[in-house]
């Protein structure tokens, strides 16, 4: 009977070293070999992007396009309950906030150099179905433009949609997939 050949384990840096070391004799190929070895080596040093993955970000601040910063800011303050923090039409940008939510409102002259246009849609994530319903009732009573009433969606979000003076849409939601049971 013939001898049974054992299969060598494939994978990992040592297998790559055994397989490629004898085949790569010219310097150009050796550097490629070293790159491949470092790619699979456990001893290779972590790259900077690995550090970035651990970084946490604060809440995003969307820039809301508006025909008039002053009119849009007044709508967000009087109809949606935000506070005007700074800015006006003359500067081309304003900041409004409500709790931890911050928004920038900008006019066409301010946005032209960046090329961003509207209308846009942004989402507000609330903490419960009750909060979604409560905010809907508050905005409806303040005569905000309501696009759709609160509803439990098949994708497990309770949501409603409102609009501002410039047609930008605000989807308010609660993700009830997070609830156990």
Would you mind describing this structure in some detail?
With 181 residues, this protein is of the alpha/beta class. It folds into 2 domains: 12-53, no CATH class; 63-178, 2,3-Dihydroxybiphenyl 1,2-Dioxygenase, domain 1. 32% of the residues lie in helices and 27% in strands. Strands 1-4-3-2 form a 4-stranded mixed sheet. It is flat. The model has no long low-confidence stretch (mean pLDDT 83).
Distance between the termini: 63 Å
Q: Spell the H/E element sequence.
A: HHHEHEEEHEHEEE
Mean pLDDT: 83
- By CATH, the architecture of the largest domain is named Roll
Q: Please describe the biggest sheet, giving its number of strands, its sense, and whether it closes into a barrel.
A: 4 strands, mixed
- Which fold name fills CATH's third level, the topology of the largest domain? 2,3-Dihydroxybiphenyl 1,2-Dioxygenase, domain 1
Instruction: Write down the CATH class of the largest domain.
Output: Alpha Beta
Total count of strands: 8
Spatial order of the strands forming the largest sheet: 1-4-3-2
Low-confidence stretches: none
Could you say which structural class the secondary elements and strand pairing correspond to? alpha/beta
Question: How many domains in all?
Answer: 2
Brief overview, please?
With 181 residues, the protein is of the alpha/beta class. The protein is built from six helices and eight strands. A hairpin with a 2-residue loop joins strand 3 and strand 4 (101-106).
Q: What is the topological layout?
A:
Blueprint: H1 12-21, H2 27-40, H3 48-53, E1 63-65, H4 69-78, E2 83-88, E3 93-98, E4 101-106, H5 108-112, E5 121-125, H6 129-141, E6 145-152, E7 157-163, E8 169-175
Parallel strand pairs: 1-4, 5-8
Antiparallel strand pairs: 2-3, 3-4, 6-7, 7-8
